Amino acid sequence: MDIWLGLLAAPTAVLATQSVDYALIRLACASGAAWPMHAVSAAAFAFCAFAAWLAYGRWRAERSLGEPAYTPRDARAGFFALMAMIVGALSALVQLAMWFPQWLLPPCR
Question: Taking the complete model, does pTM exceed 0.70, yes or no?
């Protein structure tokens, strides 16, 4: 389960956050409070970072310290864990990059 959080759920959370933030712009512009958009972006960033951390733990558990795994079945779990860690970390970085303009620009612009 921790591999699938990094591979599928983290990029989906980033895309969903972008949609929710666009929906919250009207509310933030009307009320003058941008904290709901910041809360959604912060939750998505935390989720992506947590998914990458879980995948890192799985990758550390899967890699063997002895003989390298050359058979496809033995190497598959470690490879998927590594890819989940990379995709989760990249999703966290993308979410942070999408969150950064919210700090600088007012929502009504």
Answer: yes
